[in-house]
Design a protein that fits this description.
The chain starts with a helix and ends with a helix. α4 (34-49) packs antiparallel against α5 (54-71) and α9 (137-149) crosses α11 (174-185). By secondary structure, the protein is mainly α. Helix content is 66%, strand content 0%.
């Protein structure tokens, strides 16, 4: 989630997240204007995405909701209204679910089903697959850790490695998975 936030949010929010990751002190204790920063950057992200395709709007909404719920922040009413409408269906719009490009649709459906015990929902799985498809093992682990930190991934056990390995998304053996996962925790 931090990557999504950093991709779309300005320097103040990115720096606050970095300070939190380094110190472990919650951002609101480090900066009394933290809630204003989050609200301002949420508004900025809403405006960046409101004319984009459905899934970009939905992911932006999910990112903002996760951030705001995780931090216990309420946005101003006007922002909340715009956020609520962000992923509304628009006539003629393609809302078919995205899928990993390197995997055919039938395999992808099966893979989504196999990954469902490890992630919060199918949309999150498809988003994860888009981010790891064709990437090196280290990137796959980084994404698993980010999804876990954002509470979208619920289990990073050997069973997850097995599904990813069988699908060809994680090339090396389990000891490498375990090593990379342990390194990423430090």
């Amino acid at each position: 989630m931090e990557k999504d936030i950093k991709d779309h949010h300005d320097k103040d929010l990115s720096e606050a997240i970095d300070r939190f990751e380094e110190s472990g002190i919650p951002p609101e204790q480090q900066d009394p204007e933290w809630k204003d920063i989050v609200a301002g950057e949420s508004w900025h992200l809403i405006n960046l995405k409101k004319n984009k395709q459905y899934w970009e709007r939905k992911y932006a909404k999910d990112t903002i909701l996760s951030l705001k719920n995780g931090l216990g922040i309420k946005l101003p009413d006007e922002y909340e209204e715009e956020l609520e409408k962000l992923d509304d269906y628009r006539p003629g719009e393609d809302v078919s679910l995205p899928y990993a490009s390197g995997i055919n649709k039938d395999t992808n459906y099966k893979l989504v089903q196999e990954l469902s015990p490890f992630f919060t929902d199918d949309d999150v799985i498809r988003r994860f697959l888009e981010k790891v498809d064709g990437k090196p093992d280290k990137h796959v682990v980084i994404m698993v850790k980010k999804f876990k930190k954002a509470k979208f991934c619920t289990d990073t056990s050997k069973s997850l490695w097995n599904v990813l390995h069988e699908a060809g998304l994680f090339q090396t053996d389990y000891p490498n998975w375990y090593r990379l996962m342990s390194q990423m925790e430090n």
